[in-house]
Design brief:
The protein is an alpha+beta fold. It has a domain of 85 residues: Roll (Nucleotide Exchange Factor Grpe, Chain A, domain 2), CATH 2.30.22.10. A hairpin with a 2-residue loop joins strand 4 and strand 5. The longest helix has 45 residues. The protein is rod-shaped, with a radius of gyration of 49 Å.
Length: 219
């Protein structure tokens, strides 16, 4: 060693390059790696936090799309129901105008007057309205149901065990579940042993209907 000009000697620099710390026994990391982990000033560089806001936004947009899809599906079903209802209402309005004609055809058939060309016309008309969904209901012996039957005549009878349609004055008509006209009937109820069997007219409409029927038969 050579003395310096100020008389001090240069001390040797000793670098410990051992990978194992002799005091703690742990593995030493290179200085470069330690520097990368530490921020300037000795502070550690913070890890980038998970982007929770992005995940929340994605979940919100997904929920919005699902809600829009459900609303659109409900809208389509509602439009389809409205379309069917409008169609049924229009068909019902038209067919309602044909009911008196169908009544005349039925009375003519009952009196044996539905013959020749008139019979073919009547059958064609009945087939046409049937294709549009018009059906008749009401038969002798049916249990009386006030939701589909209109009682024009009432009596008591020992031959029935419940209110029963014993005569069909006019058939009923329906389209699907829609009642265009209830069946107009004569109803009999069970008679008690001491109760007289009587026939009661429930309205002027019954007399009018039977009068029209007789007039049509006379013609």
């Amino acid at each position: 060693m050579t003395p310096r000009e100020n008389g001090s000697e240069e001390e040797p620099v000793i670098r410990d390059k051992r990978k194992i710390d002799p005091e703690t026994g742990t593995v030493r990391r290179p200085a470069g790696e330690a520097a990368d982990e530490a921020a300037p000033g000795g502070e550690e560089t913070p890890q980038a936090p998970a982007d929770s806001s992005t995940a929340g936004l994605l979940a919100e947009r997904t929920a919005d799309l699902q809600r829009l899809q459900a609303e659109y599906s409900n809208y389509r079903k509602r439009v389809e129901r409205d379309r069917i209802a409008v169609k049924e209402h229009a068909v019902a309005s038209v067919l309602s105008e044909f009911l008196p004609v169908l009544d005349d055809i039925g009375r003519a058939r009952d009196h044996g007057e539905l013959t020749g060309g008139f019979a073919k016309v009547g059958e064609s008309l009945e087939a046409a309205v049937g294709k549009l969904g018009l059906t008749t209901f009401g038969a002798k012996g049916d249990p009386f149901d006030p939701t589909v039957h209109e009682a024009l005549l009432h009596s008591y009878s020992a031959d029935v065990t419940e209110p029963t349609c014993i005569e069909i004055l006019q058939p009923g008509y329906r389209i699907g579940e829609r009642i265009l006209r209830p069946a107009r009937v004569a109803v009999a109820e069970p008679a008690e042993d001491d109760e007289p069997v009587v026939v009661a007219d429930l309205g002027d409409s019954a007399a009018e209907d039977r009068s029209r029927s007789d007039e049509s038969g006379d013609n």
